[in-house]
Amino acid sequence: MSLAKMPLYAWAMLVTAFSILFAFTPLLVVSALLELDRKIGSVFFVPEMGGSPLLWQHLFWIFGHPEVYIQFLPATGLLAMMIPVFVRRRTVGYTFVAVSMLSTGMIAFLLWAHHMFTAGLPNIVLGIFSAASIFIAIPTAVQIFAFMATVVGGKPVWKTPFYFIVGFIVTFVLGGITGVMVGSVPFNWQAHDSYFIVAHLHYVLIGGVVFPIFAALYYWMPKWTGKLLSERLGRWNFWLM
Questions:
Q1: pTM for this model (two decimals)
Q2: What is the mean pLDDT of residues 29-43?
Q3: What does residue 226 show for φ and ψ, rounded to 5 degrees?
């Protein structure tokens, strides 16, 4: 099978695998340095001895922001496999979606410092990371619009997984809009450490990851068990969630 013929879920997992490889490395390094500080008295993060707590933040968030997309990309891959089934047509813009997944995986490594806008970074750094934080909305939007175009041009079958798919689109778009907002440095200074950020995280995490996982469970569980799940209970589950 050539790359151009891979299912979009395979594309999502390929990008995720490379992201894990490069994102978890700094996490392992910073965890080791922290343990050395605690166990043998090294001073990597001790300011009184010339260490830098800011170094901890940089190394952690170099992992921490790509990790968001390590969760999100497999979920969008699942959606790309389910949506064509429930709307009875092929995914619109296969190539664009695959390229957007690759772009998301790469750009995710270029915007970690937007978690640190209030830490006293130089203005040039703030500008670069602000631009990257806003720019990453473009490949993400390509995926969302491709999914929406697929739904609008199809004939939806309203089963439980499709309810969660639509819930993903609505909730994740709200989370994405609030994410673009905090890419703006002046707004970020005001919203940092507030419940606005907490809300943004939960909109993205619930809408972008949990809803697709539940859609996938309702979609594939009958394949594993040989028994269809209750539509009535599934819809109660969706609306309560």
A1: 0.87
A2: 90
A3: 75, 15
Listed residue (212, 210, 235) closest to 165, CA to CA: 212
CA of 132: how far to CAs of 110, 113, 126, 128, in Å? Answer: 6, 10, 10, 6
Q: Which residues of 102-131 are buried (b: 16+ CB within 10 A; e: fewer)?
A: ebbbbbbbbbbbbbbbeeebeeeebeebbe
**pLDDT value for 120:** 86
Asked if the model's pLDDT at residue 5 lies above 90, the reply is: no
What lies within 8 Å, CB to CB, of 41 at 6+ separation is: none
Cα distances from 94 to residues 36, 89, 101, in angstroms, run 47, 12, 11
- Quote the tokens at residue 101: 């997944």
